Structure formats: C-alpha cells, structure tokens
Amino acid sequence: MNILEQNQQIQISSLDLSNEESYLKVSVDEATSTLQNPGEPVLPKITKTFILPLGSKITDINIESSKPINQKLNSFILPANEPVIDGQTPTENRPLSQEVYQKDSLYPDTSYNTQKSVGLKDGEHVLFYSVHYYPIRYNPVENTIYHSEEIDINLQYTSPSEPVQPQAIDDQDLMIIYPEVFSEEIQPLIEHKNNFGMRTYGKTLEEIYTEYSDGADDQEKIKLAIKDGIETNGITFVMLVGGIQGQSGDWYLPVRYAHSADETYLSDLYYADIYKDVEGSLVFEDWDSNGNGKFAEWSIFGNSKDTLDGAPDIYVGRLACRSEEEVTTVVDKIINYEETRAAENWFKHMLLIGGDTYPYDGTYTGCEAEIDTNLSASHMDGFTFTRLWASTGTLTGQSVVEDAINDGAGFIHMAGHANPASLVTHPPFQKEEKITIMQMFNVFDPLNLNPDLNNKEKLPVIVVGGCHNSQFNVSLSNIVEGIKEYGLKGYFFGDPFKFFYMEWVPECWSWWLTSNPEGGAIATMGNTGLGMGIGGEDYVTGLDGWLLPRFFYHYGQEGEEFVGMAQSSAITDYVNEFDINSVSEDRQMIQQWALLGDPSLMIGGYES
To answer: Where in the chain do CATH 3.40.50.10390 domains reside?
Structure first.
C-alpha cells in the first residue's frame, strides 16, 4: 500500500484583543471564521482544506504546534449570540453557558476537528478533507487563553488504483431538464448553447419518469437521471426548467423540501448533491441517511435527522417558468445576453445596496449589509462601484435603486429584511424607520405596483441577502389555501396575519427580476427561507454574511465565469468551513441558497 502525504502550515502573526460590551473579543488575521455556538466563547477558527482524488482513504492526520503561549485576561471572552433572522433584533442580553464558563478546562475541548465532502474543484470531482484548527483555546475558570504561533499539518492517505467514478462514454457539458410541454420553447436554447461550444442536450421529465422508475419519487428519479448524465455523458451543468404551473399549487418540475429547526423550505441543492464518500467508496447521496423515507430531515434527536454531504457535484440552476410564454422570455434573454460580449462601460460596474439589517440600540458596530457588500466589492478587481447605503444618505428609497439599475451594472449585491415580494432596510439605529429597496406587487400602491425597470440588455447578476426573496413556490392559490388553514381572521385580520407574509404573490422577488421581459436581472441568487446573520461587525464571520461574498470571490479572484460554477464553489466553501450536520442554521444556509437562472451562463457574454 502506497502512502501519500500532503502538508500545510499555519503561522499566527499576532492576537488582537478588543473590548466589546463587558467582554473581551479575541481575533487573529489568519482566521477563516469563528466559533459561534450560542452562549459559548467566540474564538477564531482556521480551516485548511486538502483536495484529494475520489476514493482516497485517510490513514493518519498529525498536527504539531509550537510551545503554547498563555495569557491571563482581565475579562471573560465574549459569548456568542443566537443567530438572528434578517431584520429582527438580537437578544438584549447575550446567553452565557454556565456549563462552559464554569468549567476548569480548555474550550474547545480539542485543538482541531476534521470533516470530508465530495464535490467539484474546477469542474473535476474530488474529495475535500478539511481540518478545522482552533488557534486559541480558553480556560474560563483561569480566564486564560493559550495559543501557538506555528502549526504544521501532515495528512497521510492512500489513493485508489482505479477510478471510483464510472468514466463517461460521451462528452457533454449541459443537460436541460424540462416537461414535454416546453419542448418547442427550449430548442432555440439548446441550439444556441451548442453553437457557442457548450455541448448541450435536453431530456424531458416524461422520459426521466419512465427510464428511472426505481426512484423513490419523481424528485429522486430526476436526481438519478442527473447522476446518469454525469457518469454516462460527462455533464457538468444541469438546467432545471419549470416552476409552479401558472397560479396553481401544482409543479411543472417538482421540488425537494428541506427542514431546519425552524421551518421547511425549497432546496434545489438536492439536485446538485449527488455523491457522498463512505470509507473510500462513492455512494449515491439520497438525503435520507436514516432510511425512513423522509428526506432532508433535521432534529435535535439523532434518529430523526439525516446526515448530508452537502457539497454540489454538478452546477445546478432553475428557470422557474410558469408558462410557455415565460420560457420564451427567459430563453431569449439568455441567448441575447450571451451572444454579444457586454460593453465594459456598464458591465464593469457594481451596485452595493443596503443599510442597517439589525438596527438595535447599543454599541454601534456598523451596518451589516454595508459591511458585507463592501467585502464583496473587495473581490472585484477592475470594477467601479456605486454604494447606495443608508448610513451615507445615498439610499433614500426604491427610485434611486431603479435609476441605478436602469443605468446599467454587471453585478449587484443587495441585502436587508425581506419577504417574497420586498426588500427593505433601516438607517443606523432606527428600527422603526424603513427604507424600501425594492417592492413587487405593492397592492397598497397600485400606481406603483412593480418596480419601473427598463434596463433592457444591461442585465446584472444579482445576489440578494434576506428572507424568502427566492421562495419560488408562491402563488395566488395560496390565498385560498391560507384562508382554509387560518380562517379569514388569521389570514387577514389577526395572528398570524399570513396575508402579510406575501406568499400569495404571483412570482417571488428574485424570479420576477430574472423573468422580467423589460430588463431586471439575467440571474439571481437568494434564500428560499429565512435569511440569518450575526449582528454587528462580525456579520461576515458566518451565515449569510460569510456565504454571499464568496460568489464574488470566485468570480473576481478565481476567474470562474460561469454563474453556476461560482455559486456552487461558494456553497462548497461553506460546507468545508462549517459543520452543516451539527448546526441547523449552517445547513439551511447552503440548502436554501437558490440560483434562479442558467447555471451555464457565461457572465458578461461570449467574445465574438
């Protein structure tokens, strides 16, 4: 047996201690995120990910560090707050775990943890093996931190002598899946893709349901067809075409629902997460690890929770079309966008839009959306920026956003408090004052029912942070269903006021933009469920604030020009950085982040 090895080093430059509330916050420049277990100390984490061939088996992991340095503190380390739903107020008093803070031992109880996932790196299927190293450990009883300045990681493994993944007999790039009723409208897109070197073929749902009858349900039949497309045809992209049928409750192309500790939500990641590694073997990831026939379960009780791999094995996006007319509209937008390289005078411009997502009284630590969009901008070399921010007074309402979009931008990152029809934010500290960023289906102002967008061919790729912006199962039929469930009082006039959840709108915020025939967006990425974050300047250390800027990192720094590749790479980064099988909020982040658009879209169009 031939033992292979890889090595990585970590050097800690210096510790930074600062006061926050009545506690101390400790950080290091090399941290990739922080430990954020509610009530427990916030400490830096450094993740190093090893990229290995599929089928590799880990034989040993050895971590050596320089002699620990101890430092006595004069205050306790800051405890983590609960994750906060976008737009809500963090708890006034931070929870404090007595179990941790009264324990005479080091926290965390180990200096590192490891995890693995199967996914894509530069379009190739690989095994990721991630080491989560905790450079600072803390004894609360002694009120002392311990850290080392140099760490060496040695990984030993064996690699399979034969490929564990079947070798494709064909050489395709993109499979488009759609119902037969959309066949005529899809053909021009298939021809266009092939003309530009994106080797593409279509497969109808009717064909899939017949050929893959062993699937547990229609969703699994589709997933098995995608798996076969990878292994037989070598595809890298899958475009799902079909949303709800008109304003009914029926689907053209079905969805998988996932579950968190708080809610149930749509997850197209199900169709992208094809494989998992089991002792060096590549196994179909069915999202039903406990085998009870219920998919993507979450529970604090182990027997009722499914353990997931989570990393995408194919780049997936959905055109959530509700009619043949809408298919034609979006297909035309994609073809026109890709046929001509975008002019730099508008494409190389980016809009950053937001304000104070968590506007609560207390020590002011910054506007979360502004901090996050600025991080995204830092990855976009060669771009100019318009910052529509509440703190500077440049974000005054929807009209300035409409004007900026109509002027043209290649990318937009905006964030705030949302529902399926709107996105709003707040000035600093002012929870009672809302600034509308964009509102669709505003029945309370019929003269301004929808945004006035006419940006035509100047179509941005939009990343939005907020709750339910991409909840594409909304429908007018939900009014009837809501009244049946809650009664007229509970739906319109009393708790829980379900009408104001805006799940009855004809199209969700994100899809309205992607499918807009007058302009809007060429693709959108947003949450199908609750957006969540960490309040204040630590917003970028986890949840929405960590995930969303990774898309811009992969486009701007890694040169990933296909929208689905950059989005999937961001999800993979999150899977490798956080423990999605231990923390419900972390799992929800990746499951609900939907791409409503063509995953194979060449951002900016092809060179002529």
So the answer is: 174-304
